[in-house]
Specification:
heterotrimer, A alpha/beta (177), B alpha/beta (547), C alpha+beta (240), A: 177 residues, Rossmann fold, five-stranded parallel beta sheet, B: 547 residues, Ubiquitin-like (UB roll), 4 domains, five-stranded mixed beta sheet, four-stranded mixed beta sheet, 22 helices, 43% helix
Chain lengths: 177, 547, 240
């Protein structure tokens, strides 16, 4: 069927709560599933981001060089980019380290609070950015869905409208927090 | 005190002067004092004592050409010397009645040609701490005339007829303001003189207060008579210690001579003035913030209306005018409103004092009739840009004003012409810039000023100036995009339209005017990662990405 | 009887309404169920006109006017909403959110915050201007209350309620511009304040989670600023 759209979801610096909320749609997921194909997500196995995706939901803020690389690539290959949840929209909890700086956080986590092998890891993990940034500060975003997490109802409304080819308006519907 | 007594004081002062053949005035304004003019005066005094000529050495206020300090003015020859040092004392005294000392630049490049001193008529000619010298030059004639020959309504009529507009920046018609306060009913009214001069590069009010404090006191007393006030305050910045000291002495002398106090000039009119010191907040130049500060509260503005004319200090009707506005009042009353309105343009009358600074040959204070062109002031009086550099822009109106480029040099100065060109008169600061100035940096400088001087009460100014400053910094560093530029323009619009007081409302002006005339410089930083004036240190990363 | 009639007729958004001559545009509008967003305004406290959210267009006025301090006048034509005003209000709200660390999800006032509600009311889904992420203190020295400057919008309701209703004058503002902070006494820790009566009025009037009662959090903890007009009336001995 030609109007089956491709959907991707990505998980940057967040707690996965927005993905949980997505799953909280319960049986409504089955109702929507006939209209989209999930081509990339932490919930499926695909390892590379496809060439063309109709809708991508982004959870989480941009916190590391890896996030930065990912989101730029995703933007390039996505028609409608959706910032899902407060971390993607505002930085939220992920960005709370911004006022004290990344060095202090590293020191606290890997040295002051560690019992063994007190050292900041440098190999095998992407470097953290000096500042955690909301997605729209890095790439253009088409739809903003606030909430921590956005409720299943809100996500259902957004997805239904997007799959129907409409631009959802959430003004006056959802708020931060 | 009456007209006869006033004349007696003047005659006594003239008689005192007649004892001398020569007078040597040494500028003891802040500018010349910083060049040790006090030592110059001492040296000249010593020299004069033994020279055999009947010579009086006098301390005076500012003579105008601060760049050539310490300055000396000789009377009756009206000859001026610049850059006079202690060692020159002998030659200065020797030249009295003889040939001028060519080495001391007696012509001063025609700085004084074309100027017209009304506000500064006594500056450099009298000792600011001797009321008799002020009286000898016509001082307090206006007050005596107003109190004895005129009623309050006719005083206001003369001020209205003169066309005088507020010299603090806004340009509100002074006569109309006085008339409004006069008509408001109230048992107690106040007159406040706003001497909280805070624009970068402005020092007009400081000079007037240092050089001729009595004329401000006289102007305030006349205003108090016209509106029915009995109490006045001069609000002056604590950063002006010399002005405060001279003002304090002047107030004592005015009280002793009966120009302040109860039953002034044998009438029922009573009026006295106190000094209030500002603690250095720029926003206290805004009238409602200034009033709050005098009341001992945090200096923040409040929404108007009600205007101070209706509800000002302690909730009573209050007249607030700037130092220079009050300084214009005595000559208007003395010579009549029509005399004053014969100077200037159709809607901007009289003269205006400007503080000429920046990249200019002759830094100093000038007073010119309204309607003179920027070119005449900058290139004629100021001698143009030094070191063979090219003129780029002139900034008027302080942080609320704007930068005007070369094509506006022939603009004749008036309140309306400056506004339509995207700047404003402001209090009279005039900063000249040459081609070594980056206009984005200039806008950033003024935005930083507004950001740090914002009182923090309303959010557009408090947070908006921070955002605009950061965007300008981003542009200067070559890290900005067109999205940032658009955001800057939008912030300018919102902050200007929604801020509570003049500080926030006009904070975007330096950005808007530089965007209007120098947009190519903004674009060079953004698109080419290049600062055309070579001022900005662009971030190496930004430059590298571009290359 | 007063010689001057004390009723004024004006139009708000084209609708003709009447109001008492001593009313502000905001009071008249709310009496007629016309919504104007506010943040620093609170019934029972003096007006400061600082948040700029209630700016409205008045025909003939050179600038937008704050509805909370502008008195009604005969024949006044007021517009409370249009594209321009809405755009300005959204940006003002964005400036509020960006200047401090308003992390709604972990705030004691989440679901019970006037700033959060305003974002919903004005349809602001995200903040376009960059967040400032300042480093700000939290003072939990008082046995019952805490002040978290990260959430403060500097509306000065606490300062006003403390001075005007409680009469303690514990709260004040220090610093200038973006560096402004509400402080207790001369910036002593709140717990050390000798003037604070621990009445908690400041907590009740705080529109955000900047001032809160210890041990209580979340959307179920409603604040109760509605007692103010009654207190004021009782204090001034006026009949309601």
């Amino acid at each position: 069927m030609s109007d089956v759209k491709t959907l991707a979801t990505v998980w940057l610096d967040g707690c996965s709560g927005c993905h949980m909320s997505l799953l909280d749609m319960d049986e409504r997921l089955i109702e929507l599933s006939s209209q989209f194909r999930l081509v990339y997500s932490p919930l499926v196995d695909c390892k590379t981001f496809p060439e063309h995706v109709d809708v991508t939901l982004v959870e989480g803020a941009v916190a590391s060089v890896d996030d930065l690389k990912k989101i730029r690539k995703i933007r390039e290959h996505t028609r409608v980019l959706v910032s899902l949840g407060d971390c993607a929209l505002t930085g939220n909890v992920s960005a709370m380290r911004n006022s004290c700086g990344v060095q202090l956080v590293m020191l606290r986590v890997y040295e002051q609070n560690a019992d063994l092998q007190k050292q900041v890891p440098t190999v095998g993990v992407p470097a953290l950015l000096e500042r955690v940034r909301p997605v729209h500060e890095v790439v253009p975003v088409d739809v903003f869905v606030p909430g921590c997490p956005p409720s299943a109802d809100t996500i259902y409304q957004v997805l239904s409208e997007l799959l129907a080819g409409k631009v959802p308006t959430l003004e006056g519907v959802a708020h931060f927090g | 005190m009456n007209a006869e007594e006033l004349e007696q004081i003047a005659e006594a002062a003239h008689a005192e002067r007649a004892k001398f053949d020569y007078e040597v005035n040494v500028c003891m304004g802040t500018g010349c004092l910083s060049q040790h003019s006090d030592k110059v005066k001492a040296a000249i005094e010593k020299e004069a004592a033994g020279c055999g000529k009947k010579c009086h050495v006098r301390r005076t206020g500012c003579m105008g050409l601060c760049a050539a300090g310490p300055m000396v003015l000789m009377e009756p020859s009206e000859m001026r010397y610049g850059h006079v040092h202690e060692g020159d004392a002998k030659e200065v005294i020797a030249s009295l009645g003889g040939e001028p000392v060519a080495r001391l630049d007696p012509h001063l490049g025609g700085y004084f040609d074309g100027q017209n001193h009304v506000v500064l008529e006594n500056s450099g000619h009298i000792d600011p701490e001797k009321i008799e010298e002020y009286i000898a030059r016509g001082g307090y004639e206006a007050l005596v005339k107003a109190l004895t020959d005129m009623n309050p309504a006719s005083v206001i009529e003369q001020i209205s007829k003169s066309g005088l507009r507020g010299r603090g920046g806004g340009g509100y018609p002074t006569g109309l303001k006085w008339d409004t306060v006069a008509k408001v009913k109230g048992a107690q009214k106040y007159v406040i003189c706003n001497g909280d001069e805070g624009d970068p590069g402005a020092f007009m009010d400081r000079s007037v207060l240092e050089s001729d404090p009595q004329r401000v006191i006289e102007g305030m007393a006349i205003a108090a008579y016209a509106i029915g006030a009995t109490k006045g305050y001069i609000y002056v910045r604590a950063e002006y210690p010399l002005a405060v000291q001279r003002l304090t002495v002047a107030l004592q002398q005015a009280r002793r001579r009966g120009f302040l106090g109860n039953g002034i000039c044998e009438t029922t009119f009573s009026f006295d003035i106190d000094i209030r010191l500002g603690a250095g907040a720029f926003v206290c130049g805004e009238e409602t913030a200034l009033i709050a500060s005098i009341e001992g509260k945090r200096g923040t503005p409040r929404p108007r209306p009600p205007y101070p004319a209706v509800s000002g200090l302690w909730g009573d009707p209050t007249l607030i005018n700037n130092v220079e506005t009050f300084a214009n009042v005595p000559p208007i009353i003395r010579n009549g409103g029509e005399w004053f309105s014969s100077m200037g343009t159709a809607r901007s009358k009289g003269t205006k004092v400007f503080a000429l600074t920046g990249k200019i040959q002759r830094t100093g204070l000038v007073e010119v009739p309204m309607g003179m062109t920027l070119r005449q002031i900058i290139f004629g009086i100021g001698g143009g840009v030094p070191d063979g550099r090219k003129f780029k822009a002139v900034q008027t109106g302080g942080p609320s004003g704007g930068c005007l480029p070369e094509e506006h040099l022939d603009l004749s100065i008036s309140y309306d012409a400056l506004i339509s060109a995207g700047s404003m008169m402001g209090s009279g600061g005039m900063i000249v810039m040459d081609d070594t100035s980056c206009m984005v940096s200039v806008a950033r400088f003024f935005m930083e000023f507004c950001m740090t001087e914002s009182c923090g009460k309303c959010v557009p100014c408090r947070a908006g100036t921070v955002q605009m400053y950061e965007l300008l910094s981003k542009i200067c560093a070559g890290e900005a995009t067109h999205r940032d530029l658009n955001q800057l323009v939008e912030l300018c619009e919102v902050v200007g339209a929604t801020s509570l007081c003049g500080l926030g409302q006009t904070a975007p002006n330096p950005v808007l005017s530089t965007l209007r005339y120098f947009k190519h410089e903004y674009l060079a930083h953004i698109d080419e990662k290049r600062c055309p004036a070579g001022v900005c240190e662009l971030s190496p990363a930004a430059v590298e990405v571009h290359a | 009887m007063s010689a001057e009639p004390n009723v004024r007729t004006l139009t708000i958004n084209g609708e003709e309404i009447s109001a008492r001559s001593d009313q502000t545009i905001l009071e008249a509008a709310r009496e007629h169920n016309i919504a104007i967003p506010t943040l620093c305004h609170l019934e029972g406290l003096s007006e400061v006109g600082a948040c700029r959210l209630c700016l409205v267009e008045v025909k003939g006025a050179r600038r937008l006017l704050p509805a909370c301090v502008t008195q009604v006048a005969e024949g006044m034509e007021v517009t409370t909403h249009n594209a321009k005003i809405d755009r300005y209000r959204t940006m003002i709200l964005e400036l509020f959110f960006a200047e401090r660390n308003h992390v709604c999800s972990v705030c004691v006032a989440n679901g019970n915050c006037e700033l959060q509600s305003l974002s919903l009311q004005l349809g602001m889904t995200h903040v376009e201007i960059p967040y400032q992420y300042p480093q700000l203190p939290v003072d939990a020295s008082h046995p019952r209350f805490t002040v978290d400057h990260n959430r403060c919008v500097l509306c000065t309701r606490c300062v006003r309620v403390c001075a005007e209703i409680e009469g303690a004058n514990t709260w004040g503002v220090m610093g200038r511009g973006g560096q402004s902070l509400v402080i207790t006494d001369l910036k002593q820790p709140w717990g050390d304040s000798e003037t604070c009566t621990s009445c908690g009025k400041c907590v009740q009037v705080c529109p955000t989670g900047a001032l809160f009662e210890k041990g209580r959090a979340g959307s179920k903890v409603r604040k109760h600023p509605e007692f103010l007009p009654y207190l004021r009336i009782m204090r001034e001995g006026e009949q309601p």
